[in-house]
Design goal:
With about 400 residues, the chain is α/β, with parallel strands linked by helices. It folds into two domains: about 80 residues; about 300 residues, Alpha-Beta Complex (Spore Coat Polysaccharide Biosynthesis Protein SpsA, Chain A), CATH 3.90.550.10. It is about 40% helix and about 15% strand. It is built from nine helices and 14 strands. Strands 3, 4, 5, 6, 8, 10, 13 and 14 form an eight-stranded mixed sheet that branches. Strands 2-1-11 form a three-stranded antiparallel sheet, with no helix packed on it. Helix 1 crosses helix 2 and helix 7 packs parallel to helix 8. The protein is globular. The N and C termini lie far apart (about 85 Å). The relative contact order is 0.12. Bound molecules: beta-D-glucopyranose (BGC). Beta-D-glucopyranose (BGC) binds next to helix 7. The site of beta-D-glucopyranose (BGC) has 7 residues, from helix 7.
Length: about 400
């Protein structure tokens, strides 16, 4: 400290001297008389001494301040600082509490600014149970656990689950949730999915069942139809309040992104890692979305006609709008989701053409005309495995009829 102050005072003095020196040189240039020069050299000494006096005074004042401040720090560390910190902490906790399960309502007329339009945290259809809500042991945003753990080990880790189902022991959950995952041939991703989703939803104190809906080999993958099959199969098991259509490779990173239903469908996967944690486009409805039974029935579920990659979620968004719902999104940063990479891409489809056709036929294409062959439904410890056969040729036959010019 003192080294700094002494250096400071030297700089002060020297700069005073230099100021004076510069003054002298400029006077010289003006060619002033020798009498004037001697007066100036007297003046130099005055300025030099004044500089030194000011520097010493500055050192003295700064020294006082330094000691005062160390005492202040000592005092505050002995208690006051802790008070300040805990006040800040209380404030943050209160803030987090109020934000815990707020949702932003969006619709396609609203610019994609992520700004709040309206906040909703009620679901009129549910009796809300008596488990503490919002739950007390949420962890906020935590990174995904990408370690691959064998399914037997996962069974041992999550012993609270049986037959693909979990129910809180000492209270009634806020809602009963069916997680429906369209699936084909991604065993590693499935294990990572289970190891991330189960503990998160468990911390959310919800009653839940997981349905892995696998499509048999033969036809192109049909995410929409597998979602519809999962919905029907889950509702056969029990009266779930809410169905969550969940991609296998997109996983929430934040406990405050609740697996629940509201008065409108909720799109949970808003800020996905593979889209650089941004909403890729405003009406994006892919990844993870939640529906009450009524909402899913009102929109006639997903379209059945989208085979291969893409478009079925765009049609889903259109159905939500056409049915006069407003899709909602989790509050601000709560919608962060990690993505688990996999190799190989599903074959694309003619989704633009299908989206055009769907506008006309959506009421006949979905839950209302769902046809499939249930090959197997097996209750494993962590999930219910639904194995279903989809006959693409038959489904496309229907499209021809629905889209025939005589029906227009
Ligand atoms: C597709 C959607 C897909 C989105 C993001 C769109 O072009 O139609 O199905 O979810 O891209 O990948």
């Amino acid at each position: 400290m003192h080294v700094i102050l002494v250096t400071h005072s030297c700089v002060y003095t020297v700069s005073f001297y230099h100021l004076d020196h510069d003054y002298n040189s400029s006077m010289k240039q003006l060619d002033i008389t020798s009498q004037a020069k001697s007066k100036r050299s007297d003046k130099s000494w005055y300025i030099l001494s004044a500089g030194l006096i000011i520097s010493v005074t500055v050192i003295f004042i700064l020294d006082l301040q330094f000691f005062a401040s160390t005492n202040f720090i000592r005092n505050t560390l002995n208690g006051k600082m802790l008070e300040v910190l805990s006040a800040a902490d209380n404030f943050t906790n209160k803030f987090i509490d109020t934000m815990k399960h707020k949702l932003i309502i969006i619709d396609s007329d609203i610019p994609d600014s992520g700004s709040e339009q309206h906040v909703s945290d009620h679901f009129s259809n549910s009796n809300h149970g008596n488990c503490t809500w919002p739950p007390l042991n949420l962890q906020g945003r935590t990174p995904l656990n990408r370690t691959d753990i064998a399914i037997e080990k996962l069974d041992q880790k999550y012993t609270f689950m049986a037959d693909g189902h979990y129910k809180p022991k000492n209270c009634t959950a806020y809602q009963k949730i069916a997680i429906v995952v369209p699936y084909r041939d991604r065993q590693l991703q499935l294990r990572i999915f289970l190891n991330n989703v189960i503990p998160r939803i468990h911390r959310q104190q919800l009653e839940f069942g997981i349905y892995i809906v696998e499509q048999t080999a033969g036809s192109l993958f049909n995410r929409g139809m597998l979602s519809n099959i999962g919905f029907v199969q889950a509702m056969k098991d029990m009266a779930y309040d809410c169905v969550v259509i969940h991609d296998l490779d997109i996983l929430p990173e934040d406990d405050r992104n609740f697996y629940i239903c509201g008065d409108n469908p909720i799109h949970m996967a808003t800020k996905v890692e593979k889209f650089k944690y941004r909403v890729p486009y405003h009406s994006f409805a892919g990844g993870i979305s939640t529906f009450s039974k009524k909402q899913y029935e009102d929109i006639n579920g997903f379209p059945n006609q989208f085979f291969g990659w893409g478009g079925e979620d765009d049609e889903l968004f259109a159905r939500i709008k056409r049915s006069n719902y407003k899709m909602t999104r989790p509050f601000d940063a709560h919608g962060h989701c990690g993505s688990v990479q996999h190799s190989g891409q599903r074959t694309g489809n003619d989704r633009m053409k299908m989206l055009q056709i769907s506008r006309k036929i959506w009421k006949q294409d979905g839950l209302t005309d769902l046809e499939y062959n249930l090959v197997e439904k097996r209750r494993k410890q962590l999930y219910v495995w639904v194995y279903a056969d989809i006959n693409m040729a038959k489904v496309r036959e229907k499209l021809k009829k629905l889209n025939s010019p005589s029906r227009k």
